[in-house]
């Protein structure tokens, strides 16, 4: 049994501006709290796209460099805010000079983690053109700040946020431009309720939930909770009868569980399991396990006990 526990964010540190003024009712103290984007976007309002990333190849910086001029050409009332540093920063600056886009793209350089929220709340869309990503905590932080997320469909990103919070694109220039333009059009038509994102992210990714799930895994491994409670096993529900504490699913039950692991990942997992099972059946027919000699456990010599010193000997010393 494999237990998958996602990462989490401190949602209180990534609140949108509207949420701060509505829920906390306090006076803004930072410049970012005073110049946030409006809740509804009109056809003549400028949409700000935020990018916060290390400027490396695997983070899709080359893809970003190629897409920015085309996105700005298709959507004139759009600007970019890019935060981050790396070896690709020079290529990005050269692209801005070549296309004369310095007034459309603001380069902030490296920012500290405690400043990320102040940068995010200045925008409407978060663009994440990464070529490889396991989880992508930054897109969860962006959604918590009330930004609509445009990201590439790579790694574990498609499993991180619900579909109504994201627009996915292939890691290709043309598809990224199309996806970003769709997101801009969706915001201008007010089809996306970004004001609800923070509360939804707060419920989905909580460190308390991560701690409880991690503790439960340790309790199941150490036997502090019963196998029935840990694995969800109850008599007559498809588990194989076995005296071992770790029971295995029947094939059909395992396929059902793997199928629910994701839109594409679930189908891939099921295909791998079926192929492995067919290989296992073939090997069992070709070379049955009854013909395999089982290695005997080598007897271990018990550790020698240390001689105990009598009290009389201790007193004589």
TrEMBL record:
Superkingdom of origin organism: Eukaryota
GO biological process: GPI anchor biosynthetic process
Gene Ontology molecular-function annotations: phosphatidylinositol N-acetylglucosaminyltransferase activity
Database matches in InterPro entries: Glyco_trans_1
Keywords of the record: Glycosyltransferase, Membrane, Transferase, Transmembrane, Transmembrane helix
Xref: Pfam families: Glycos_transf_1 (PF00534)
Bilayer-spanning residue ranges: 264-283
GO CC, alphabetical: glycosylphosphatidylinositol-N-acetylglucosaminyltransferase (GPI-GnT) complex
Boundaries of every Glycosyl transferase family domain copy: 43-175
Protein name: Phosphatidylinositol N-acetylglucosaminyltransferase gpi3 subunit
């Amino acid at each position: 049994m494999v237990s998958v526990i996602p990462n989490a964010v401190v949602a209180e540190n990534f609140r949108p501006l509207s949420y701060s003024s509505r829920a906390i009712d306090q006076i803004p103290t930072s410049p970012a709290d005073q110049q946030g984007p409006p809740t509804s976007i009109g056809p003549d309002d400028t949409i700000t796209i935020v990018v916060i990333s290390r400027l490396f190849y695997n983070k899709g910086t080359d893809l970003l460099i190629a897409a920015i001029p085309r996105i700005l050409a298709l959507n004139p009332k759009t600007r970019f805010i890019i935060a981050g540093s790396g070896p690709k920063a020079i290529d990005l600056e050269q692209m801005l000079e070549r296309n004369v886009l310095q007034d459309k793209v603001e380069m902030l350089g490296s920012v500290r983690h405690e400043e990320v929220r102040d940068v995010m709340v200045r925008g409407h869309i978060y663009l994440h053109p990464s070529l490889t990503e396991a989880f992508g905590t930054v897109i969860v932080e962006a959604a918590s700040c009330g930004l609509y997320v445009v990201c590439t469909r790579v790694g574990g990103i498609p499993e991180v946020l619900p579909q109504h919070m994201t627009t996915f694109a292939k890691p290709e220039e043309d598809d990224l431009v199309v996806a970003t333009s769709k997101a801009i059009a969706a915001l201008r038509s007010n089809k996306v309720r970004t004001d609800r994102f923070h509360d939804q992210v707060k419920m989905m990714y909580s460190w308390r939930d991560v701690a409880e799930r991690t503790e439960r895994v340790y309790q199941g491994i150490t036997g502090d909770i019963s196998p029935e409670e840990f694995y969800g096993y109850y008599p007559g529900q498809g588990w194989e009868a076995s005296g071992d504490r770790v029971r295995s699913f029947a094939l059909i039950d395992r396929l059902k569980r793997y199928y629910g692991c994701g839109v594409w990942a679930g189908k891939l997992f099921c295909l791998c399991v079926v192929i492995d099972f067919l290989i296992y059946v073939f090997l069992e027919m070709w070379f049955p396990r009854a013909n395999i000699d089982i290695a005997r456990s080598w007897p271990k010599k018990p550790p020698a006990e240390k001689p105990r010193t009598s009290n009389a000997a201790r007193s004589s010393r």
